[in-house]
Amino acid sequence: MDGGDRFGVSTVLFDSHEELIWVGNEGGHITSYFGSEMQKYTSFQAHENEVRHLLTNDGGVLSLTHNEIRFTKRQGLKLFSLSGSNMTDMQCMLQKDDSTLLIAGHQDEIFELDLNRHKILQEYTVEPGTCIMKVSSRYLCCGDSSGKIRLRDPKTLKCEHVLSAHSGTLSDFDVLGNTLVTCGFSSRQGHLSADRFLMMYDMRMLRSLAPLQTPMLEPFMLKFSSTMSSRVQVVSHSGQLQFLDIGGHMTARSMYIYHVNTHGGMVAGFDISPNGQASVFGDSAGVVHLWVDHGMEHLAFNIYSRPTNFADEIHHSHPLAIDDDSVPYSSFPLPHCSEPLLSDWPKKLLKRRDRRTPPIDPEILRAMVVKGFIGQAPNPGNRLRNQVPYIWRSTSKQKRVPESPMNREQNPFSSLVPKIYRRVEMRYSKLGVDDFNFQHYNKTSFAGLEIHIPNAYCNCMLQTFYFLEPLKVSLQNHLCKKEFCLACELGFLFDMLDQSSGQTCQASNFLRAFRTLREASALGLLLPDTDESLGRVNYPRLIQSWQRFVLQQLHRDTEVKHDESEEGNETERVTALINSLFGSQVQRTSQCSQCGAQTTRDDITLLTALSYPDNPENQAISFVNVLQSSLLGVQTSPAWCENCNKFQPTIHSKKLSRLPDVLSVNCQIDAEKHKEFWNRKKDNSTEKKPKDTPVQNTRSNIPCRFGDGCTRVGCTFWHTKDGEQTPAEPELTVESSREDCVLTWVPFFMKLRLADDGTLVCLDLNSEDESLEDGDIIYDLKSSVAHIQDYNSPGNLVAMINVDKSYHKEPVADEDSSWYLFNDFGVSEISKGEAVEFDLSWKTPCILQFVRRNMNTDYDLTVCRTIDKQIILGDVSLSQLHNAAAQRSFTPLNLNEVIQEGVVVGIDCEFVTLNQEESEIRSDGTRSTVKPSHMSAARVTCVRGEGPLRGRPFIDDYISTSEQVVDYLTEFSGINPGDLDVALSSKHLTTLKTTYLKLKYLLQHNVLFVGHGLKKDFRVLNIMVPKSQIVDTVQLFHLPQQRFISLRFLAWYFLGFSSACTYAPEGPGDE
Description:
Among the domains are: 1-125, Methylamine Dehydrogenase, Chain H, CATH 2.130.10; 129-259, 7 Propeller (Methylamine Dehydrogenase, Chain H), CATH 2.130.10.10; 869-1055, Ribonuclease H-like superfamily/Ribonuclease H (Nucleotidyltransferase, domain 5, 2-Layer Sandwich). 14% of the residues lie in helices and 30% in strands. The protein has 19 helices and 55 strands. Helix 3 crosses helix 4 (486-499) and helix 4 packs antiparallel against helix 5.
């Protein structure tokens, strides 16, 4: 290292944020090296004395000498340094949190330093001699020069326990989990000698464990390997290295002694990388040694490292020959000239022309108030002082495209994907989503779903499930006591979609329950925002896995259990609706190809994955042929044979005993050959219908301009040879439109016939009137889910659904006009053919759903869910510290109080922030919201508006949450850390589902909700309340094109509350 010829290494450290190694020497010089190749990154003189300790954080590197601490950026720029009269012999430091640092040494104080304000916050008086500090889960461990380790309280730094590790002095120690290991020196006959035993302590019981013996070396430094909690690396002063297992297990590696080639020097510094793949040593000769695991091809020091900033390369200009005529003169730099240039125009040929003042912004003129002859208007703040932007005239002649909320910043001519299929984005203003125009994307009576919630990629499948009426009604009737039940949350979401009348909804409560499922996380169904924004998601495979998992989860949630007779304790599982709708009863047979042994088992399959033929060149393969081979495919794969007692090639076959009502097909287009197969079938299916196919003649009564000499095929204008000018009745001719002439490979309806022996016959239907036989089942295409790939977006999933007539509020005359495209919150009406036309360059099929014709007649489609009144009368708290009698802040409803239509109920909600708002500052200084903050309900209060207990709350629920809260908004909400924790809270704590059911109960009884800003409250609670049941003081006292009035002003104006009194949420009825 730099200065190694004069000074030895005093300390080494792996950077915890970047791929850097930091080295300090006895002369106060600090050098850093990048990566496993030890490329020098920075080198600077930090101190005049020995660097005793190094520490890294997010902002830079901290270095400590005996009397000074310095904070330096990784590039070498000094941020601050601090020294004091009490800082006489400092030895070590420890970062307590992001902004606080503890510094200790042989003096009598431990200093607490604020890294943001660069000053000492507090000085703690302790026993002198602290040379090493480590932190465990419960204690701050301080090792001193007398061989003792003092366990201190991390907050007060009071000594609670003392461990006497060595009789001489302490050399080093480390803590991992509940285990503390030390090495040091013992005093023998007045001399210090190295202890050949590593002392171990259990931090839970505060007792010593059996020590580890190191007979082959004298321990000087040690560290736990971060990846293996039971392995310790021990280093001697002379450079010997040994790996020991704290459990006492002897391995070949633990018996081997490694040697660091110090060339006679002494090891003075030692550290292990955070991921345990590398170790670094520094010796007294000024040499740094890097050791890595053998065979590591791609070495990294950290599990997740951020990129390191390097200095920009200096680009040197190439020398140019002055006599080269091909070189332009502008390539040569010239000195500044104070005399006129030859290229200057003479003044007589120049004329001064002032730039015309641009017109004043109409918004400023509209807000201007004229007093006398002076007009005053508020400064919009979008321009710099005394500066006017220069605007080219040509900018007004750019492409004239109507401005709309969709893709304001994109080139509308740059994408071949139709506009309604592209990924929709929400553009936020300072009002968030309140002023976003959702109607621009949805002019239908069906609700879209918002996309700013994490894992909202499944919106398309939620819409698909909603338009399966038997499934929708069954989930709306389902209600259980399970907190995170997907079936209940889907039922609540379907209630919102029923009541929305075209308003955009959000599936936040369903996705909240979905995020709590460990199985979903293990299957990779929970996406981080970075992967989704960077386009790292395989959406077709993801949505197919999502459907498989959710159907299985819904089956478990809706499964009903009935107890058997008292003779046996077995339970009978009644077939759930999911099996009845999606389940295919399959008999699977496995036959060993060697001994012929067969095993048979019955199974239920909820999905069907397409298995493509091995010979894709065969043009005669239809979709139903592929589907038939997928339902009854025969496969050969290795399996365990009990007779042969080993793995053997086994033939697996299937037989169907029952077909589902909803045939859900995963397209499984994973390989390139599968895409080629679909493209080939798409090209081959573009054929004409038979000539005798009758279609309606739509010939116009307008004469053709070419008369009888017209030679255009299929001309729709009237000719003399056509006879009557105005036909009395429409004729049937063999002419057809282009849309009717195209035959798609995916059929709109097909016929399946299941024989008694389990064989299946799948047939295409050329027309819906084709004759049927007994046992034939007609399946109609219900929906298709596709992945849309656009070059300037990470892609999105859309659903094309054939909506039943029962969902339309107005009667539908044409069946083909009932197909709709659901693109998150964008809903558009599409033609029937768009649902099965797939151009794989931008539109990839993922899921196809076929439903049995007239399926709804076999199910009860009556929504009859009732919420028991006990849900609102209950007074059960989840908090372990809550005393219902002493700490209850509300009076529950009693049996005599009647909740009926028109009863006034005051409501107020408080929220916490799960994810902070993401915003950007534009070049003009304005702030634009990229992603709003993710809020979660924390407290819901309902107050009686009538009766003898008027003004007394009957609901005051704190909502427990297991998700990480980034901001409790205590200033506004009164929620403190711990109030939502079951183990720590003293409040009346309930689940979100329980509180949601209470509000649903009030909603079903048509109560009148009164509050301030209820639109946001109900939005975060994810509940749809009709406008007729809302009295919102925000809207009640709001004038058009004026700002909203605060509750504090309304309380002062109408109720006489003083504005000087700051609102503090002491009680639930204050607001």
